[in-house]
Design goal:
By secondary structure, the protein is mainly alpha-helical. The longest helix is centred in the middle third of the chain and has 127 residues.
Amino acid sequence: MFFKRKKLIEIDAKVDDLLRITAGQSKMEQDHWNSLEQNQQTIKLLLEQTQETLKESLEQNGQGVTEAIRQCREFMQEMENSLQTHVDTNDAKRAHQIDALSQQIKKLENDTISGIGAAANRTEELQKLDKKEIIAHVVQLERCVSLISDLVRMQLLNNVMDDYDG
């Protein structure tokens, strides 16, 4: 019995050792599982923070895009207003130039009518003149008509240049 008892004590000691080893392993496994759970919670928290940061970033970028679109629309409206002002200014210049040309044309018409009247009055005088004098008067009238034509062309060219400069 002594041997059996000794054997039982040895077995009991081995069982205790095994229990301690097993308990140690269980403790290590428990620590490992606790660590895994803690890591899982940390990862979950980091994912939530990342999602929140991304959401905020997208909202800010969306607001930035909205602001950029608004500024672009304002700029386009300003450009349109500026263009309209420019067109209105050019229209006013053209109206003034057309009015000035109209006055010049009326003056030329009046001068022409007066010239015709004067020519009619001078018909008798011209009949008295010889052909050389008549040709000289015709040449002088042609020069006047040419100068008037050049004046009108220069004024029209000036108007076109003003439009390009304006």
